[in-house]
Known about the structure:
By secondary structure, the chain is of the alpha+beta class. It is built from 4 helices and 10 strands. It has 2 domains: 120 residues, PH-domain like (Roll); 54 residues. Helices cover 38% and strands 31% of the residues. The strands form 3 sheets. A 4-stranded antiparallel beta sheet has the order 3-4-5-6.
Amino acid sequence: MNDYYTNLDSPESGSKEEKLYTSTDGVSVNEYFTVSILRMKVIVYIIATCVPIAMYLWLRKYLFMFEDDGYAEFVFGIRLLLIFFFVMVIVLFWENAGKKIEVMGNSISFTQWFLIHEDITINDVRECEVITGLTSYSRYRSITYNKIVIRYGDNKKISVVDITYNNWNALARYLEYKGKASFIDGRSFLAKFFDKDI
């Protein structure tokens, strides 16, 4: 099997019921597991949700003071910004925490937004991209992660990343074992060039 993905799954990612199959190169493949959001990410979302609420409670007295002094438009803008941030965090939590992939042999169950539920078989998967070495840059640091994009049915897709969901490696191994995975090097041109040069 392809040894392209190297990130280890989270310690909490073990499934209660495991059925392992061994491929020709001796690598065990689990066909019964669940891909769901990491608990640490849930805690992060809960903390992020509390931030705008705490900020509003802290600024509330000052906002009323500014409003009384004739800065109603400024106060309205601050409140709108805090509401926008709060709603954005709730939507992101709903999207990410509400996403789940359950693999049971040749059957795969997708849940999105907690409410949308679909059951398919491995034969319904049109293609699967396992993209490794992706990098997200911010002002203070960069994060490298891997992503799986599953395309199925009538132009439908679902994606998971290894830094947010557990059992990422199990899903990649399973899809490769079933002959559905295509591996893509997601590194930048410069990263590929320097690695090749070394």
